[in-house]
């Protein structure tokens, strides 16, 4: 297992270099730059624009710009945000806790609902309850997340006034107090429910089908022939084997939710990485755009590694060497 992990970590190095080149190239291919009048009408002085481009090295050859950016990135220097006039690393670090809170909360909601609905539908297949759960799954798969977010804001924020529709915490609360943490959970609840419940469908259907398949295998028939209680058969034998694939998804599920929260954060004006990414793309803030993209790529590779390691842990038949 240790040798496998080391090999995978070393194998990430050329992959990350290739990703960095693609990210840098795509960022530079975007039309315009942060100092053009088409981005900010107040910055129309040609002398100012040329001075800033020269100062930040935008007039240097592409390979020089790439080498300067990647070497600084590896040293932890993400560059200066041209929009916020501060280090990009500070801006990103301010937003990461919000995005991680949203992603973790959504992940918990996804797995809890998927576990109970999938287990119930698998134990009682082809019943009315199973068809109701399947209908919900089809709706969740068909409805885009941004549509569900708009509907949720309309009903639960404007009509019922149960949840706030923007921000991450109420204004004026002191960080570290009980009211502060309650407010943060209150603000993250609605976007997390939308993101989590819309991601539940595939896991629910997968767990249901796997439970039905495992219930027909020989070891289950043997257990029933020995007189083992049906609840013990499902909880100890069938469910344990059916949960193995879901556990392996945990590694990159968190990464998927972090990267997939871009639209959700924008609609809820939730100050996370997703909203920051879209704002930075609109203002051609290269330092922030490239840094966020690289960080998400690193998280994705690490998530895939964690998924592979979890698969070897939960299923002893798999040996990763």
Automatic annotation (TrEMBL):
GO terms for cellular component: plasma membrane. The keyword Membrane applies. It comes from the Bacteria. GO terms for biological process: transmembrane transport. It is found in: Cell membrane. Signal peptide: none annotated. Residues 96-307 form the ABC transmembrane type-1 domain. The chain crosses the membrane at residues 9-27, 100-121, 133-156, 188-207, 246-268, 288-314. It is a multi-pass membrane protein. Its main location: membrane. Gene3D superfamilies: MetI-like. It holds the Pfam family BPD_transp_1_N. SUPFAM superfamilies: MetI-like. Keywords: Cell membrane, Membrane, Transmembrane, Transmembrane helix, Transport. CDD domains: TM_PBP2 (cd06261). Belongs to the binding-protein-dependent transport system permease family. This is Peptide/nickel transport system permease protein.
